[in-house]
Amino acid sequence: xxxxxxxxxxxxxxxxxxxxxxxxxxxxxxxxxxxxxxxxxxxxxxxxxxxxxxxxxxxxxxxxxxxxxxxxxxxxxxxxxxxxxxxxxxxxxxxxxxxxxxxxxxxxxxxxxxxxxxxxxxxxxxxxxxxxxxxxxxxxx
Length: 141
Hints:
The chain is an all-beta fold. It has a single domain, classed as Metal Binding Protein, Guanine Nucleotide Exchange Factor, Chain A. The chain contains no helices and 13 strands. An 8-stranded antiparallel beta sheet has the order 1-2-5-6-10-9-8-7, with no helix packed on it. Strands 4-3-11 form a 3-stranded antiparallel beta sheet, with no helix packed on it. The termini are close together.
């Protein structure tokens, strides 16, 4: 891991994203989340946040400290977007808009500031379940 912070820093909440009628729900993910791009490990964390929004698949947000930001380059972002998009250089060329983050202090998405999300159709994102101890409690790997 690139960072190891406690689980108590983030709690469950529901908010409305800008321009969305459906609330989002954010929960700490108890699993280890790893992200590969063209076979290279570019993110590895035990501190991901899972964001649920009606009508969309859950999205994993990974602390920036657990992302290999040296593989990402700031890309073009839509003018009306609150997100910053990132491109990534790969052996076969440039993958555009492979990731995004919310870097401004918008009050609704402030909890996601400092986190990066990846487009699941462009990367290999895996959730590795936490191991269970003999007592049945989760053991973080």
